[in-house]
Specification:
Layout (H helix, E strand, L loop, with lengths): L5 H19 L3 H24 L5 H31 L8 H15 L7 E2 L3 H14 L7 H16 L3 E2 L9 H23 L7 H25 L1
Antiparallel strand pairs: 1-2
Helix pairs in contact: 1-2, 1-3, 2-3, 2-5, 3-4, 3-5, 4-6, 7-8
Length: 229
């Protein structure tokens, strides 16, 4: 925890603190802001650790523990609050997201395959999706059936070994990173469209996630076809 590692580990702890704040927030919009800060801290801690040569097993474990809270427990908690008045004990299904997040992160920590992509939906994407959707639909909530269906889908996506794109770059050539550049460009376009057409910048998150899944599928299928040639 001490020495150079204190810098990235402090960012990891900021992630955790923001997750705890999201659990205590007065409304889902405030919770989303805390989760957004947690996501930035989660992005920065790894970048900083690699940049200053302070990556450690301790940092890796702390990162996963913080992510379980900020991007697994937080969306489960808010979904439970929304569902519980209508479906009572069945609202506990919301905590499948926390369980799947913990499973996904434990598997990631034990993975020695050195894969360049992700296996299963990254846990931060789960947290950002749910808090943005719940914020967008706060005044006109989605039906309980849709919410439960999405909970089951996202739990399955996190627990799966579905191959998905990683944003890590070993180089910046178009040939090796075409899908990543296309995805980044698509996210920028979706942000502009969300702001000027849909009039709500928060739509960027679910739209970007959909594009991420589609382009990851295209990358996977293209790679399979390329291997057969």
């Amino acid at each position: 925890m001490f020495g150079k590692a204190i810098i990235p580990n402090t960012l990891t702890m900021l992630n955790l603190v923001m997750g705890c704040a999201a659990l205590l927030a007065h409304n889902v919009q405030d919770a989303f802001l805390f989760v957004l800060i947690a996501a930035f801290a989660d992005l920065l801690d790894g970048l900083v650790a690699r940049a200053i040569g302070a990556a450690s097993e301790m940092g890796k474990q702390l990162d996963s523990l913080a992510d379980v809270v900020s991007f697994g427990v937080v969306p489960s908690f808010w979904l439970y609050k929304i569902l519980q008045p209508d479906i009572k004990m069945w609202a506990a299904l919301a905590f499948l997201l926390a369980v799947a997040a913990a499973f996904r992160l434990a598997r990631f920590n034990l993975d020695t395959s050195k894969s360049t992509g992700f296996k299963g939906l990254p846990v931060p994407a789960n947290g950002l999706f749910w808090l943005s959707i719940l914020s967008l639909t706060d005044t006109e909530p989605l039906s309980n059936q849709i919410l439960v269906g999405l909970i089951l889908l996202f739990a399955l996506l996190m627990a799966s070994t579905l191959p998905l794109l990683s944003f890590k770059f070993s180089n910046f050539s178009w040939k090796d990173n075409a899908m990543k550049f296309i995805l980044i460009g698509s996210i920028i376009v979706s942000a502009i469209g969300s702001h000027f057409i849909l009039k709500k910048i928060l739509w960027t998150v679910p739209i970007a996630l959909l594009l991420y899944l589609i382009l990851s599928a295209v990358q996977h299928l293209f790679g399979k076809q390329h291997e057969k040639v």
